[in-house]
């Protein structure tokens, strides 16, 4: 029976207390008696549950590979084909790069990641196998969910469906999809295929939907129809969902209502340069929202660092959240919101939950979001995995 | 004759070289001979010219005053009146708070600041006097330009014009303005008054324009008309200029052309939640663009840190800049762009210019923007003012 006592911490910035951890779970929250447990003194730090990265691409980053000069063309298809070519040319090894990203994410206090992983007829299962190896290797450090993701299209690249089927049989957790109109030019074909795989394997669905305005709304309706017909309420996520930022707010509101009824979640990166789903409107309608970093430092672009506390800031800035309660909601999206979408059992800062805990030196939660201090201590199931902004384990 | 030799630095991420500094200016860029100068080894760091904060509110921040719980109402007028009330209640002393912000800005590599400073019939010149004292006190550390800014309105608060006149007589550098329709309800009255002050004192103008769409375009036209009529080309800046983000792109393009003809500059914060002037369009049209942090950690909102390298990132994210050349332009806006608007003589990384230099550990300029490393060394006219992210001087 292994015990750790976190002394002098303030859950969500509240009153000073102690957290007793036993066998990887929170045994008690409250001022502790004298104890034989190992002690970590939080020094008054804020405690929050582990950050949840609900939309990453662990197979993609060039992190640690030197600077990549970006000069790809402007179209989505340019970036997809540039990446497919550069993967092999630059040897962007999915096992190595996903391991590096696990260390980076842990250093920032993330304890769970949903990662889309490319499946296509060029790479076949190379990306899946690499990230699956990382998932196994870092099982004690990070919960990783793998989405089998047809980045290069499903209907336009015959053979992809069979590869996705194989990935799901081999342990992929979620069925991915991508712009059924914009990329695949066959929305019925792609969505029937994706939802078919979900039914066959009993897995949830997470679809990238960049399509804007009426086109995106049309695809969204088709996703809603299939969710309803198949009774998949609570099992479907739409990532990006830019169409919800459409200027026709009445149409966006109607779509949002349908999403709420089918309990379809939205994953956002809160990009500054695109129309986006408005967090306050989704919240009012009862639609669950989670967030992620998307690809970081990859052939698509130069930005990103897998810091979900910074992502909470970006959500706050994008949604013009200024009041404390709103900024706290931005962090909620990056913690509980992601945990709900990943269906992480026993998540949260409460007795009985897994001790996935982040300590932050700040006065209040909104200050932590605004200032993004180095993570003072990160625990995964009660075990320190990062301290003072550095992961406590190394990867090559 | 004081000499400092910066060894092993890479100007803008280029080839390794040395920079010899003499009497506060860059005497030579090139591999140095043996020298009797004091030496700083850059260790291969990138060298860029000092960052320029072209839109700040040094009289406003609550930095260092403990967390302020935000719960102001949503309207602009709510925030203005909340602030006027809290200034005295919380004792937001402009001298103290501007000094703290100078140290913060210097720690991030900023060497020049244009600050709007509230002038109104409640505060009178309290804010101006405080920031002017800070300008004098930190003369060797930071170039500070003061904009006499009628935050609470000019026409709707009689007496304000006389106070602005007094501030300009006492050393304010720039005539400010604010939403001549939205706040003052008298665009002709306000703009005639502002441009009149500018003519009287021979000073440039910098007008906050939050007004959107056609309303903002109307106010912008009136600013353009006065700039042309008074021959003030190159002397007028419009801050925010949200109307340039209007959906009627043809109208925005026509306005932009007029701005270019009158050489009116735009100052942006690249906010994620508002339509904004598009950096690429302004650049193509030949309109000068500078950037700033706006108010930080004040009664208006919880965000901000005066880090202009982070602001370059925000510009990149807001404008969807992905290619290296574009990200370099984002940094240009936060360096040379601001220096041009502030008409800083002898600015830049070239022989003869003042030695306002920032060293950054990064491989390339775009990587520095994406990663925002702690500033390794900051020189103001050849003198170290910050190192490893910490200012080398203290303020109370």
TrEMBL record, chains A, B:
Signal peptide interval: none
Its EC number(s): 3.5.4.1
The keyword Phosphoprotein appears for this protein: no
The organism's place on the tree of life at top rank: Bacteria
Keyword DNA-binding included in the entry's annotation: no
Any matching Pfam family: Amidohydro_3
Stated name of the protein: Cytosine deaminase
Organism: Aminobacter aganoensis
């Amino acid at each position: 029976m292994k015990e750790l006592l976190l002394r002098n911490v303030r859950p969500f910035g509240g009153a000073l207390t102690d957290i007793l951890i036993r066998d990887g779970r929170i045994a008690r929250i409250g001022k502790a008696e004298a104890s034989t447990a190992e002690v970590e003194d939080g020094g008054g730090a804020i405690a929050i549950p582990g950050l949840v990265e609900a939309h990453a691409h662990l197979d993609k980053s060039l992190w640690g590979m030197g600077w990549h000069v970006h000069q790809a063309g402007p179209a989505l298809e340019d970036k997809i084909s540039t990446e497919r070519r550069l993967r092999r040319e630059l040897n962007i090894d999915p096992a190595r790069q996903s391991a590096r990203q696990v260390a980076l994410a842990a250093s920032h206090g993330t304890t769970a990641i949903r990662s889309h992983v490319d499946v296509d007829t060029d790479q076949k299962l190379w990306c899946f196998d690499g990230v699956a190896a990382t998932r196994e290797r870092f099982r004690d450090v990070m919960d990783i969910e793998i989405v089998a993701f047809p980045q290069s299209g499903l209907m336009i690249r015959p053979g992809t469906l069979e590869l996705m089927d194989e990935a799901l049989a081999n342990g992929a957790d979620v069925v991915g999809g991508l712009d059924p109109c914009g990329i695949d030019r066959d929305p019925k074909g792609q969505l029937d295929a994706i939802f078919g795989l979900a039914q066959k394997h009993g897995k949830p669905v997470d679809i990238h939907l960049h399509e804007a305005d009426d086109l995106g709304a049309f695809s969204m309706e088709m996703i809603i129809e299939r969710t309803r017909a198949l009774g998949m309420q609570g099992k479907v996520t739409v990532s990006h969902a830019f169409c919800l930022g459409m200027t026709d707010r009445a149409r966006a509101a109607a779509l949002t209502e349908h999403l709420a009824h089918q309990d379809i979640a939205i994953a956002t990166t809160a990009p500054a340069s695109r129309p986006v789903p408005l967090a306050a409107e989704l919240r009012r309608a009862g639609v669950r929202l989670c967030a992620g970093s998307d690809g970081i430092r990859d052939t698509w672009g130069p930005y990103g660092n897998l810091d979900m506390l910074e992502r909470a800031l970006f959500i706050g800035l994008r949604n013009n959240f200024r009041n404390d309660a709103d900024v706290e909601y931005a962090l909620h999206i990056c913690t509980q919101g992601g945990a709900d979408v990943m269906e992480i059992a026993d998540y949260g800062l409460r007795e009985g939950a897994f001790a996935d805990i982040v300590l932050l030196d700040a006065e209040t939660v909104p200050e932590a979001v605004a200032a993004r201090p180095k993570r003072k201590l990160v625990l995964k199931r009660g075990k320190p995995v990062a301290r003072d902004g550095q992961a406590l384990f190394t990867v090559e």
